Amino acid sequence: MTDDTQTESYPEIREAVQRLCARFPGEYWRALDRQMAYPTEFVTALTEAGYLSVLIPEEYGGSGLPLSAAAAVLEEVQRAGCNGGACHAQMYTMGTVLRHGSEAQKRRYLPGIAEGALRLQAFGVTEPTSGTDTSALKTTARRDGGHYVVNGQKIWTSRAEHSDLMLLLARTTPQAEGMKRTDGLSVLLVDMREAVGRGLTVRPIRTMMNHATTEVFFDDLRVPAENLIGEEGRGFRYILSGMNAERILIAAECVGDAKWFIGKASAYARDRRVFGRPIGQNQGVQFPIAKAYAAMRAAELMVREALRLYEGGANPGPEANMAKMLAADASFEAANACIQTHGGFGFAEEYDVERKFRETRLYQVAPISTNLILSYLSEHVLGLPRSY
């Protein structure tokens, strides 16, 4: 697009991802969108190329690369007009297993995930009654001999129909007076191949974009106690430790979306002629695209700063949250500018703009609402009173 490509990290990986994505053009995604179908071929291609296992250490069959490599992969997927939402969770859920899983769990699952024999795509955290208030979740896991018996419900558990494994956050110790609300929660690694039909029910939810999301129900589901990740009762901390990575990677995707929208709008504004001149000659068309470009570049710099801190061992909570918010805002601003530039054609399926518009709109809400990011910054950075 412009000279920003000269400073991008991992140029070889980016070029390779671009070549892979070229095999999955707009018509591939449009056909899936009409049917609300999962992009199995695309996810398989990413898996076989090793991109979904970049964070897995080499000793377990992965590439052992840092988070910035995963960010580069996902940014290029979005920049190419594809949708990483079908598989990005494998990258950020991986951290819980890598940091807190036992050696036996790592050796049992990571090689299979790296080679594509297993998919770790489902993340069971959010519930209908608690939303983002994770500490208030009601799904329980009661110890019974060598198993945990799980009862409850999760919602917005994306990719559950297309995953072999699920990371599940459940309450193992009842809430008692004097306990922190975040204590007593534990993480279980659920083998969905064994669980579906034996206490686990998965129901798809149709949404405005093709996101393969579901609600899942647990009815006396028995999970082997050996599938407990880390220590019982410390699950909230384990999940929290992976949220910075999640937000940084989603931010990278939004930057990629913004670059796609800006490139698409700029090309159309140069080529589309009305009243005997290209519409891009008009400042009313130029300025929104240029403003979206400036917002994208600012967000991109915040993503890089969050990555720098994360890979340096710091706890970049503010930076990860700001990166996600700024990048989501930038992608949505670019999406609006792109539709406006195309006029009526922006709503036509064949241009892919309306599809990408719907997909990037999600990131104003997920994986955390922009409003909650502002609340976090107000309290934890600015020292203002807690608002919730």
Automatic annotation (TrEMBL):
Write the record's keywords in alphabetical order, separated by commas: FAD, Flavoprotein, Oxidoreductase
Task: Identify the Pfam families for this entry.
Answer: Acyl-CoA_dh_1, Acyl-CoA_dh_M, Acyl-CoA_dh_N
Superkingdom of the source species: Bacteria
Q: Which PROSITE patterns match?
A: ACYL_COA_DH_1, ACYL_COA_DH_2
Domain Acyl-CoA dehydrogenase/oxidase N-terminal positions: 8-116
Cofactor(s) for this UniProt protein: FAD
Give all residue intervals belonging to the Acyl-CoA dehydrogenase/oxidase C-terminal domain.
233-365
**What are the Acyl-CoA oxidase/dehydrogenase middle domain coordinates in residue numbering?**
122-220
Is this entry keyworded Metal-binding?
no
PANTHER family (alphabetical) = DEHYDROGENASE, PUTATIVE (AFU_ORTHOLOGUE AFUA_7G06510)-RELATED, MEDIUM-CHAIN SPECIFIC ACYL-COA DEHYDROGENASE, MITOCHONDRIAL-RELATED
Which family does the record claim for this protein?
Answer: Belongs to the acyl-CoA dehydrogenase family.
Q: This protein is called what?
A: Acyl-CoA dehydrogenase fadE12
Organism equals Methylobacterium crusticola
Q: Which taxonomic lineage does the organism of this UniProt entry have?
A: Bacteria, Pseudomonadati, Pseudomonadota, Alphaproteobacteria, Hyphomicrobiales
